[in-house]
Amino acid sequence: MKQTFYLLLVLILLGCENNTEDIYTYSKIISQSKGYPVFLDMSEIGNIQVKANLPLTAPFKILSNDKYYFVCEMLKGIHVYEKKGGSVSYLCFIACRYIKGVELVNNTLFCNNLADLVVIDVTNPQQITLLHRQTNHFNRFSSFVNYWNILSVAGKGIVAGSESHVLTGTVTDKQPNLDFTEFDKLYGNLTTTVIPDSWFSIHPENDKPYIGMIKMGTDEIYTYGMYNSWAICTFRSGTFGLREEDLWTKPMGKYAPPYYYSNAYPQKMFYQDSLIYILGAGNTNSGYADCITYNESFPFTYNLYFPNFRPVDITYMPTIKAFIVLSGQSVWAYMKSYLDYKIPTDATSIFRIGNNVITLGKELNVYTPTVTTLTLVKTYPAISGKSYLLTGNVLAVANVQGLFLYDISNLENIKLIP
Amino acid sequence: MIPMKKICFIHLLLILAVSIFAQSVKEVDLTVEKNRIHSRFDSRNEKGFYSIMQFSLMMGNSQSTDRTAYYIDYYPTSEMAAPIYYYPNTHTSLAVAPSFTITKGYRFDEHWAAGAGVGYEVFDYNLFPLFAEIRYTLWDNKISPFMVVKGGYSFGNFKSKHYDDLNLNWSPYYLNNAELRHYGGLMFQPEIGVKVPLSENSDLLFTVAYRFQETKTVARKDNGPDQFDEWEHNEDINRLSFGIGIMFR
Fold it and tell me: What count of other Cβ atoms lies within 10 Å of the Cβ of residue A259?
């Protein structure tokens, strides 16, 4: 009985626990900072206008229709040359800032204006008409390549920078954060017309936005889609059309959609010899070239990888079934394996004319390739340029002196067309 | 502070002990006959005022904090003294809180009585309960069980006290240059006991009670105009109380 009593007593005592609750309250004067985005005001940048003349410094692409040559100047605009008989004369300059990609459908020019796609009527280049602006078209990558985009906010535009503002006030446990309502009103819609210098380097092809445009068929413009897809643009009967096409689109076009490497980014896209080429930069100094072939039955792409260089340009030589690649220092070939022809060159363009390979840079060289060697046929030191356009027997070359036309009917005797 | 408390309680116990024997001139003679308890005080007043002095010990588990010194070889090659860190280690242990109360009231009849009282209690800090009670006694003039329900409010400190170094049993455990104030809180105490008549005017009471006591303690550190940090520690204390008291009538 005694034991039971003591046991009960101990149990009761053990049950007599205290219940506690701790509450922390405070009032402090603190300073908090809040960052506000500065949005890019496109009113200046988006102003596409015709100017009389501007020096040619960095041509990256030449286009032509039956009346004009359009020489595209990196980040600045388009020089227009009028065709007069067999020669050309400078007409005007269409200022389109931050241009990196351009295509022409008859008299309609598609190009980028920073991240926007603009469609311009160039029937009369001296009196252009902006037909359509597709806002942020080149800045809407998704999924694993979100980081390819420049930071932007839907409805507000591209974020060009940020400003931080400090607010000092009293916070309490009930109101732990300062009230930034007034600051939000003051600084919520900051804008600038200036793009930070750091956005574009001396190699703008490496910088965002990543632009790729090629004309396919009669009037379709293929651009990079949101993810592993084409964004196909048209401008028909005054209406802009846009559709995404990926591997699962039915019916799909005859070219496989591009593949987006999450550790690389595309630098250049062009169409040549019925092939779509996408050249890209990978980590450190590596690069790739995706060669998308026309194939009606199933999508097919040659994926070339170069661990030690970023390909500058590429062409296909059907006689030896080889892709021939400029590395910036040498000429490589890919047949069933990679081959370095060990020909030192700093040429920036390579293309095929008949069974010959032409390189263009500080000089023009004509080569004859085999599966083991690349034999120099002739060098033209007077012909230099950063971009070219091959139309029949006429080679248009653009350099800082202007646009020059050459007759290439005989590769051993290339002549300047006066 | 603690020696002062001891002195107070010794005095209170002396008063209580003297009171027990000072109120009766008649010898207590309790006899048991045929399973019935008789007393010599059959002619006690059923109605009238009463007063009780009671001493109790309230037992239960309480939270306490040890501060373990932790040394690190901060400057092993230096002659500078290494810093000492004190890590609070909180645990629960048996705690006993003494209580002294004085109650004044009125007996309505042989069974029912009601009154009000004040007291002095020592938990981790002093509390001063102010309470009302309702009392039911089975028999008035013989050894009898009784029940009491007490309820009221215990007061703590009436103003804050400043500490250069303030150690607490709860977070933040340590503060320097801070104020501390104990606010007390509501109390509730159901009680049962046995009443032993000592004389026509006095009874000895033995009690067992459950005690519920709310407390609130606030540590505050002022950092300038309109700037402060305040830590409020609310505690519901549950105790088992054993008491002895004397009732005068």
Answer: 16
Three-class secondary structure assignment of B178-218: EEEEECEEEEEEEEEEEEEECCCCEEEEEEEEEEEEEEEEE
CB-based contact (8 Å) between A170 and chain B? yes
Tell me the three-class secondary structure of A82-130, residue by residue: EEECCEEEEEEEEECCCCCCEEEECCEEEEEECCEEEEEECCCCCCCEE
Q: Which of A9, A20, A28 sits opposite B170 (nearest CB)?
A: A20
* Confidence band for B22, pLDDT divided at 50, 70 and 90: very low
CB contact under 8 A, B235 and A23: no
For A19, the closest of B230, B231, B236 (CB atoms) is B236
The DSSP element (H or E) to which B87 belongs, if any, is strand B84-107
What pLDDT does residue A13 have? 64
Does A22 sit within 8 Å of B171, measured CB to CB?
Answer: yes
Segments of chain A with pLDDT less than 70: 1, 9-15
CA A43 remoteness from chain centre: 22
**Whole-number pLDDT of residue A335:** 93
- Residue of A313, A292, A268, A412 lying closest to A353 (CA atoms): A412
- Long-range contacts of the stretch A330-335 (C-beta < 8 A, 24+): A331/A357, A331/A359, A331/A367, A331/A374, A332/A306, A333/A369, A333/A371, A333/A374, A334/A302, A334/A304, A335/A371
Token representation of residue A263: 């550790």
Range from A361-370, B11-20, B22-31 carrying the lowest mean pLDDT:
B22-31
Residues B63, B233 contacting (CB under 8 angstroms): no
The residues, ordered by sequence, that sit 6+ positions from A319 with a Cβ below 8 Å of its Cβ are A355, A369
Complex ipTM? 0.74
CA angle B152, B100, B217 (to 5 degrees): 55
Task: Return phi, psi of residue A13, to 5°.
Answer: -65, -40
Please give the mean pLDDT across all residues of chain A: 94
With CB atoms and an 8 Å threshold, state whether B238 touches A18: yes
> What's the token pair of residue A414?
């290339």
Residue that has been written with the tokens 């588990």 in this structure: B61
Q: A17 and chain B: CB distance < 8 Å anywhere?
A: yes
Q: Which two tokens stand for residue B73?
A: 């070889």
Measured CA angle at B222 (ends B220, B226), to 5 deg: 115
From the list A12, A18, A23, the residue facing B240 with the nearest CB is A12
- Say how far apart CA A134 and CA A278 lie, in whole Å: 23
Residue A350 CB contacts under 8 Å (≥ 6 apart), including other chains: A312, A313, A314, A315, A324, A325, A326, A331, A357, A358, A359, A360
Nearest Cα residue in chain B from A9: B240
Question: From the candidates A11, A14, A22, which should be mutated to test the interface with B, based on the most B CB atoms within 10 A?
Answer: A22
Query: What are the tokens at A88?
Result: 């050309």
Chain A residue numbers with beta carbons less than 8 Å from the beta carbon of B63 are: 18, 20
